[in-house]
Amino acid sequence: MFKKxxxxxxxxxxxxxxxxxxxxxxxxxxxxxxxxxxxxxxEKKIEQVNEFMLKNIQYNIDIKLEDMKSVARQYQLNKExxxxxxxxxxxxEFLKRVRNCYQELSLSRKANPAIEVMIYIPERGYILGxxxxxxxxxxxxxxxxxxxxxxxxxxxxxxxxREDGNEIVISRYMSYINYGEECxxxxxxxxxxxxxxxxxxxxxxxxxxxxxxxxSEVNRENTILILDGDQxxxxxxxxxxxxxxxxxxxxxxxxxxxxxxxxxxxxxxxxSNLADWSYVVCxxxxxxxxxxxxxxxxxxxxxxxxAVIGVIAVVLMERRNYRPVRALMDILPEREEMDTDEFAxxxxxxxxxxxxxxxMQETMEARREYDRELGLLxxxxxxxxxxxxxxDEELLGKDREGGYFSFATIKLAVEEKExxxxxxxxxxxxxxxxxxITDTFGKEYSYIKTIxxxxxxxxxxxxPDQDEAEWKKECRExxxxxxxxxxxxLELDLPITIGDCFSSFxxxxxxxxxxxxxxxxxxYTCPEGVxxxxxxxxxxxxxxDRLNFYSKRLEAAAAEADFGAxxxxxxxxxxxxxxxxxxxxxxxxxxxSIVNNLLMMSRNMVQDExxxxxxxxxxxxxxxxxxxxxxxxxxxxxFLRLICRAVDQDSQxxxxxxxxxxxxxxxxxxxxxxxxxxIADEMGITPRYMxxxxxxxxxxxxxxYINDLRIEQAKRLLKTTGKTVDEIAEETGFANTRTFRxxxxxxxxxxAKEYKNR
Length: 758
Fold this sequence. Notes:
Blueprint (H helix, E strand, L loop, with lengths): L1 H75 L6 H4 L4 H21 L4 E6 L4 E4 L3 E3 H10 L7 H8 L6 E5 L11 E7 L10 E7 L1 H8 L7 E5 L5 E6 L11 E2 L3 E6 L2 E9 L6 E7 H47 L10 H40 L10 H5 L7 E8 L14 H16 L4 E6 L3 E8 L5 H23 L5 E7 L5 H18 L4 E3 L11 H16 L3 H17 L4 H19 L6 H16 L4 H40 L7 H8 L3 H12 L3 H19 L4 H7 L5 H12 L3 H6 L1
Parallel strand pairs: 16-17
Antiparallel strand pairs: 1-2, 1-6, 2-3, 4-5, 5-6, 7-8, 7-12, 9-10, 10-11, 11-12, 13-15, 13-16, 14-15
Helix pairs in contact: 1-7, 7-8, 13-14, 13-15, 14-17, 15-17, 16-17, 17-19, 20-22
């Protein structure tokens, strides 16, 4: 046995050590995650820097292009620089016009020295600029003598002849002043020209400003590329690399990755706003990865050494921490399940001890509360001889000294309402009321509760410093809130009575007996809502409340056709009338008022005109002519019996009518013209009365009954026949297929087609 326990202990100790080792692996995992997170952050940072640099380059190049286009438009719109003006008929006139243009170009050059304007006129073989105005041959010889010219004369002429109209290029040959240097050139045709006398304006500026922008960047490893619309490399700046003629990459339009000569590059791309160009910046991946790899290696080495040292420390510490657990295991009772570890065994024993202790406490508390409820009930009812009488200290509590008491009662004898979908369960209602009372009063006032014949009785234990008027006001407010709470949620009006305050507990039986009398009186006068005991008056048989009391109960007996119940209520009525001391005329008027109420009620239940007009009129005459109490009583009994018999007969007729309607619907449901009006005509009654009778007898509306019957027949046909949905809709009496489909899906939750496939 001890060997098995030691095996279990070793399992627990190893689990501790493994958990500690797993925890120590977290820094290692964090280092790996940190490496990739930093790599991602650095990549994003480089992308941001590259995008910023590209935007700067795009802005500066587009500014230059905009300036060059503006200069080109200036000369294009100047008639002196048109092809028509420069191609004069005579050489003298041509040279005169060239001289004027040369002077204007020279002045423009002084105003904007960064931009050079050169005009090439192929027809004349002439070049015009701010520094020269001569034939193409002479200009070529001049450049050749300066050691700048690299092309032959024909090649140079071919370079300056453009097939398209306006275009932007980067060239070293379309300039005179900056010949041999890489320039940004805007080529525009000379206006007022035809195909024979064509010419071009070359607006150029050196691209050295791009190199200066690159020199201001921190990362000297970047390469800036300018690509045309086909991704061909037009020019590159910064770190010179063998990019090839065309650049291909993977990624989206703005960020990409590419491989050049076995080296990986990351880059960003930005479109020009003025040209069909793309500006691309490339950065070698190794530039920023080298430092990251070095940091990763150092981090891994430090974390690994820390993990090794931590594992050793965990093993030593957990072995030491395990000693008290082993000591506790020695005092536990012998266990049957030896594969359970120590903590599970300790937890199981602790839970068992706690559960037993909790059960004992709850049982004792429930017993004490139950004893207090029985004790209070026995005291208020004066029945203390059946079990041990509780002392005042046991009933009221040890700390109860001085103060006074107050009763509050809540009647729970709830009558079921007609057509109520969910009847109120009495036990559930008791539970709800007690919980609401606890939440409302439990934090501020102490009390004892009990139940006396479906009446919740609360005896509040008020402190000596509690003001009586303030208590009644607060108690009434809380009780009104509780009554409104149940009215809004359960549509239930609880009769709540608040008793007077009394100071001696020995008076509790007498006070409760008086409160019972008050509730008896209240039952007849004001049976609903929250009332204080002192507000309830004695019974006045002639009062309107008392009249309503008898009218309601006699109406209920007549509605059920229960003459026995109605006679019992009538006997109570006449007994009170005979002892009231009122005159016979007043008592006759009182009975006639009740008769009138019953007639108003029966008008909605009795449909037999003969009973309403003949037999009822005869008995009314007898009641009106009665001269003694016995005659009045006999006539009233006759009237009540007549009403009950009529209601009973009418109820039987309603059942028969309902069955006739059902039979008619079953025989004619497949006729789409069948509706409430047609059925009422067949039955010989009004549609409204027929609908009311059918709903009262079946609990459903007539239209709903017809629709349900048609749906059931449709379900049968879908199951047993191969007919289409349209055929079944017509056969079951629906006006059209659309109505059938909508009603079928609403009734079954699936479409007719889905139901048929199932």
